[in-house]
């Protein structure tokens, strides 16, 4: 790459003139990396502070900008074996962080209050059988009120705001009955305290908040961890672009590009941003966008899209605003249409609370009225009983039933190399019975590789990789990348359009076309492209093509065994799709599909009552991803597509897709169990409350007992559930 | 029962102290790096070599 990239976009300057830079770091495997990295950084002149966060794998640097260039940092890190790239905190991540801190504070307050109130409440309960003077009891209630009211006002914030937001949109969510329950419990208790009554429910209200907050903190912690890891991955993609700043060409991070910038895209490079070609002629591999593997010829005036790979010619490109291309506009329009159906999906817990809230409020009303009108209770007693029904039914277990499972499931996803974009995705993935795969970049690896690697001597293969490092030809670049080749050979010379040669072991090694290497060209060219190597009298043909993901055959087999319907939908030519479908044994496949045709196919399956999972990476898949019941993308997918996916998977293997299905299925079963349990609990507790027998002790026991049970049940997802364990082996073998 | 007059405030005060501790640690970002902190204590790069 030559010149160092200009990282000034990421640097923030303090008022005292020092600069701050955050780097995302890849390759941290153990704790020993910590002193390694920090010492290496502190040795650089001008570095004031270097602190590595082992949890988030980020390095915070404070340095004197006059003494050291930011690009030095990544260079030094690379030399000691870590890949690093400046990291820019996204708004989403900052929001998640703020939310986590607030929840933790609320939990702290709720636990503090619950402990102190319990101390008093237990004295009151045990005092009822002995002889607690009524004055002492009233005093204890008063102290409880003084602690509970401000604590509830603070710790209840997350629930109150969410309930209020739901009511304003004329919806009901689980936070509405929670808010009503807590408020009524506190109100009734204050009233009872004033009137020297036996019972007060301060403990129930506060404990309810503490349990619920604990569940949400766990959920949020998991979400934050996922977001951090995803943020790092995005940063580490860290591509640079060659930009003309009016006087000279400089390397800048892609994140710093703006509309109107003039870029140079060299042969074999990825196009960093959408733009229009000003100068140059080349062929562009648009497989990331359309799925089509044949390069498309382009010249001045044509549009090129971010994520496509430039062929043999250099292009000068002016960056245009995103969404200006017909293709992207079309995709966005289709996504919007397809996405409408999707936003109507209602979560399990919302569906339950939609029924639950009116049901319990009606029960409480009927109970109160019956006691008052038919059983001759005083208005005060009837009201107390009605409210105690509400307190007992306050959906503690119900509200914990789903989030606890969600937290555990996203942890399991994380360990299998998956990120959940949307919590709703989990429930939807658990319902899947049909899977539709895209071919290019989904079933096949995103980068082409050597198909016949096992037929070629290892030393020759290594030599080929190192020779390829000296070439700008797209095939050579793909070769070098896929072989993870070492340093280029010294004195290598490229003959444009033919190949690379370099002195090697007294003779000459050549890599390039058949003629260049003096080899017999293959009579019939199949879908693979060939590249030849000659060294020390030996000649070999390397066949470069899009290879299947290493475990694709096994995973497809597994999915079929699990009884799922499988289909392949590709934008690529039918001739290119057929061998893949045949190898995988998928009978139903289509090639040459346009985005609209892909949607139509998915819709047709949906019309048959199938729950479709779409797995795809291209821009052409994005609308189908949005239309499908659930969707998964590989991490290499284009942004727009990833945004539509419920989950994103890492690595070269297809295993995470199967793991996602297994985990979600398990999670969904646990959610249903938990919800059923919560309802059974209510079926038992509500009659007791309706009979007017719900003492505060009973309420406290029932509530905490059910909450703990539901949480323990969710933890089973962590334990050695057979299917999950089988599929969720850690995916550590990615490059 | 008079002992309650200072035992209850004492219990609450202790609880508040712990709560203050939590808020303090959150403000100082003490939970930022739970893994790193465990290893950092083993590093002795802050000890001057003699």
Automatic annotation (TrEMBL), chain A:
It is found in: Cell membrane; Membrane. GO terms for cellular component: plasma membrane. Residues 19-85 form the HMA domain. The chain crosses the membrane at residues 102-127, 139-160, 172-193, 199-218, 355-377, 383-405, 674-691. The keyword Magnesium does not apply. Its main location: membrane. Its EC number is 3.6.3.3. Keywords: ATP-binding, Cell membrane, Hydrolase, Membrane, Metal-binding, Nucleotide-binding, Transmembrane, Transmembrane helix. InterPro entries: ATPase_P-typ_cyto_dom_N, ATPase_P-typ_P_site, ATPase_P-typ_TM_dom_sf, ATPase_P-typ_transduc_dom_A_sf, ATPase_P-type_domA, HAD-like_sf, HAD_sf, HMA_dom. CDD domains: HMA (cd00371). GO terms for molecular function: ATP binding; ATP hydrolysis activity; ATPase-coupled monoatomic cation transmembrane transporter activity; metal ion binding; P-type ion transporter activity. PROSITE patterns: ATPASE_E1_E2, HMA_2. One of its GO terms (biological process) is metal ion transport. NCBIfam families: ATPase-IB1_Cu (TIGR01511), ATPase-IB2_Cd (TIGR01512), ATPase-IB_hvy (TIGR01525), ATPase_P-type (TIGR01494). Belongs to the cation transport ATPase (P-type) (TC 3.A.3) family. Type IB subfamily. This is Cadmium-translocating P-type ATPase.
From TrEMBL, chain B:
Keywords: Membrane, Transmembrane, Transmembrane helix. The keyword Lyase does not apply. The keyword Membrane applies. InterPro entries: Cyt_oxidase_maturation_cbb3. Pfam families: FixS (PF03597). The chain crosses the membrane at residues 6-26. This is Cbb3-type cytochrome oxidase assembly protein CcoS. The gene is ccoS.
């Amino acid at each position: 790459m030559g010149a160092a990239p200009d990282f000034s976009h990421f640097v923030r300057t303090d008022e005292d003139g020092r600069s701050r830079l955050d780097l995302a770091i890849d390759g941290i495997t153990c704790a020993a990396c910590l002193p390694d990295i920090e010492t290496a950084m502190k040795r650089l002149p001008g570095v004031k502070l270097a602190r590595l966060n082992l949890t988030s794998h980020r390095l915070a640097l404070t340095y004197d900008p006059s003494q050291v260039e930011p690009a030095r940092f990544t260079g030094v890190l690379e030399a000691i074996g870590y890949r690093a790239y400046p990291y820019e905190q996204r708004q989403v991540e900052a929001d998640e962080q703020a939310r986590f801190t607030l929840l933790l504070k609320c939990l702290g307050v709720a636990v503090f209050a619950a402990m102190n109130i319990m101390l008093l409440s237990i004295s009151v309960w045990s005092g009822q059988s002995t002889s607690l003077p009524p004055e002492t009891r009233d005093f204890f209630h008063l102290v409880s009120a003084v602690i509970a009211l401000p604590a509830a006002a603070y710790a209840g914030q997350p629930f109150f705001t969410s309930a209020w937001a739901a009511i304003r949109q004329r919806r009901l969510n689980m936070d509405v009955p929670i808010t009503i329950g807590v408020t009524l419990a506190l109100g009734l208790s204050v009233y009872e305290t004033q009137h020297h009554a036996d019972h007060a429910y301060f403990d129930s209200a506060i404990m309810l908040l503490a349990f619920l907050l604990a569940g949400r903190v766990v959920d949020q912690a998991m979400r934050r961890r996922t977001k951090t890891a995803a943020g790092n991955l995005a940063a580490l993609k860290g591509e640079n672009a060659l930009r003309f700043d009016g006087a000279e060409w400089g390397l800048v991070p892609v994140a710093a590009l703006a509309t109107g910038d003039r870029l140079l895209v060299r042969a074999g490079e990825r196009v960093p941003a959408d733009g229009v070609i000003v100068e140059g002629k080349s062929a562009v591999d648009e497989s990331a966008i359309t799925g089509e593997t044949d390069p498309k010829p382009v010249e001045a005036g044509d549009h090129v899209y971010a994520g496509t790979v430039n062929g043999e010619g250099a292009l000068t490109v002016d960056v245009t605003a995103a969404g200006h291309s017909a293709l992207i506009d079309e995709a966005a329009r289709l996504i919007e249409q397809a996405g409408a159906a999707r936003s109507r999906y209602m979560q399990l817990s919302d569906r339950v609370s939609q029924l639950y809230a009116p049901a319990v409020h009606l029960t409480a009303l009927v109970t109160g009225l019956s006691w008052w009108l038919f059983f001759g209770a005083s208005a005060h007693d009837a009201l107390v009983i009605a409210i105690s029904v509400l307190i007992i039914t306050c959906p503690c277990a119900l509200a914990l039933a789903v989030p606890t499972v969600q937290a555990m499931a996203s942890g399991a996803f994380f360990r299998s190399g998956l990120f959940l974009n949307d919590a709703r995705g989990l429930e939807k993935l658990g319902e899947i019975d049909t899977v539709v795969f895209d071919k290019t970049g989904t079933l096949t690896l995103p980068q082409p590789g050597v198909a016949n690697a096992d037929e070629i001597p290892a030393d020759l293969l290594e030599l080929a990789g190192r020779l390829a490092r000296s070439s700008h030809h797209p095939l050579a670049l793909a070769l070098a990348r896929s072989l993870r080749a070492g340093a280029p050979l010294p004195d290598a010379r490229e003959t444009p359009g033919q190949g690379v040669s370099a002195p090697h072991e007294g003779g000459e090694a050549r890599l390039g076309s058949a003629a260049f290497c003096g080899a017999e060209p293959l009579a019939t060219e199949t879908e693979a492209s060939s590249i030849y190597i000659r060294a020390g009298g030996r000649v070999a043909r390397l066949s470069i093509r899009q290879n299947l993901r290493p475990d694709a055959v096994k995973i497809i087999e597994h999915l079929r065994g699990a009884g799922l319907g499988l289909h392949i939908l590709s934008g690529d030519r039918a001739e290119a799709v057929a061998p893949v479908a045949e190898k995988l044994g998928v009978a139903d496949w289509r090639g040459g599909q346009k985005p609209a045709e892909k949607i139509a196919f998915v819709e047709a399956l949906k019309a048959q009552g199938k729950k479709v999972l779409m797995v795809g990476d291209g821009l052409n898949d994005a609308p189908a991803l949005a239309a499908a019941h659930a969707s998964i993308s590989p991490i290499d997918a284009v942004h727009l597509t990833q945004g539509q996916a419920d989950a994103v998977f890492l690595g070269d293997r297809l295993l995470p897709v199967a793991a996602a299905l297994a985990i979600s299925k398990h999670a969904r079963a646990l959610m249903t169990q938990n919800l059923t349990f919560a309802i059974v609990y209510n079926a038992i507790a509500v009659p007791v409350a309706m009979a007017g027998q719900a003492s505060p002790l009973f309420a406290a026991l029932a509530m905490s007992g059910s909450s703990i049970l539901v949480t323990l049940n969710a933890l089973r997802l962590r334990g050695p559930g057979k299917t999950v364990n089988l599929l969720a082996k850690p995916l550590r073998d990615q490059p | 029962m008079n002992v309650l007059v200072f035992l209850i405030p004492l219990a609450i005060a202790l609880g508040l102290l712990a709560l203050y501790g939590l808020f303090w640690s959150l403000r100082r970002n003490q939970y930022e790096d739970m893994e790193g902190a465990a290893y950092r204590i083993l590093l002795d790069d802050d000890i001057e070599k003699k």
